[in-house]
Write a structure and sequence with these properties.
By secondary structure, the chain is mainly beta. It has one domain. About 5% of the residues lie in helices and about 45% in strands. It has 2 helices and 11 strands.
């Protein structure tokens, strides 16, 4: 990161706080997991049969990962908009029995939405500024094999927090906790907008994710992402863009998901991006 995922719920259109009569805003898109609607992945309790006693599969090595983080953003002019942050990640997995470490390097972030009115662009400088993050994970015995489980992991962008889960995000660019992560002279991180509204947003964000897969194979596996996040707009290139719209994790948990595909040792982010269409074909 996140990695998205690293988290990046980024405004597609200008908005101000308002309620929607078409959507139940029962999730604050913040760090409080009690409101989360996702279940974190396949339910092992639904399986029939005995838990495996076989040795765990060897999944050490180099992988490409695609993460999709789905959210709904509430715009008073057009209502709720489904938004998808698609993160392509290079992962180096090391393994000691069932204990894993996944060292992640975010390669590219693409934002898609169910509207053609606006496009959000995540600049290369944004992606390049993200830390290469080692994340702990486990292989959990299950019926028919092992599941990949990555416990709750927080990622923070553009701000230094002492208490990452509990500290309030700053709302002013002058807050001493804010820093210019992408080193472009603007506080936080810069996101570009094109379409009906054109300009830049300067943002900070915090998210947490939990990954749970189905049965792992040594060449590929996939599962669901349980997640929440919050973003603050600290400024913008125009006053009309300088807002923080209401955003929640998408109610359909299956839309937030991930897939790991093994690639050649020594592969780089450039390889992941060049091969993403073949590695992650459209359904």
């Amino acid at each position: 990161m996140m990695r998205l995922l690293p988290f990046l719920v980024i405004a597609l259109l200008t908005a101000c706080e308002s309620s929607s009569t078409e959507y139940q805003w029962n999730n604050d898109a913040g760090p409080d997991g009690s409101n989360n609607q996702n279940d974190g992945g396949p339910d092992a309790d639904a399986d029939d049969g005995d838990i495996t006693t076989d040795p765990p599969p060897d999944i050490s090595g180099t992988w490409a990962q695609r993460q999709v983080l789905a959210s709904t953003v509430n715009y008073p002019m057009i209502g709720p908009v489904d938004t998808f942050h698609i993160n392509y990640v290079l992962v180096e997995v090391t393994q000691d029995g069932t204990t894993l470490t996944a060292l992640e390097e975010t390669c590219e972030i693409i934002v898609e939405a169910d509207t053609d009115l606006q496009t959000t662009i995540i600049p290369e400088a944004f992606v390049a500024s993200m830390d290469h993050e080692p994340k702990s994970a486990l292989l959990i015995p299950a019926v028919g094999g092992y599941r990949f489980s990555q416990p709750q992991y927080y990622q923070v962008q553009g701000v230094h927090l002492t208490d990452v889960p509990g500290e309030e995000l700053p709302t002013e660019a002058t807050d001493p906790r804010v820093f210019d992560q992408d080193e472009d002279g603007k506080a936080g991180l810069t996101v570009r907008m094109t379409g009906m509204l054109t300009g830049e947003l300067y943002i900070i964000s915090r998210e947490w994710t939990v990954l749970t897969s189905g049965i792992v194979a040594t060449d590929a596996f996939e599962g669901l992402i349980d997640w929440e996040g919050a973003q603050i707009t600290l400024g913008a290139s125009s006053e009309i863009l300088n807002t923080t719209p209401e955003s929640v994790t998408h109610a359909d948990a299956s839309l937030s998901n991930f897939r790991y595909v093994r690639i050649a040792d020594g592969a780089t982010c450039a390889d992941v991006i060049a091969q993403k269409e073949s590695l992650f074909p459209a359904p």
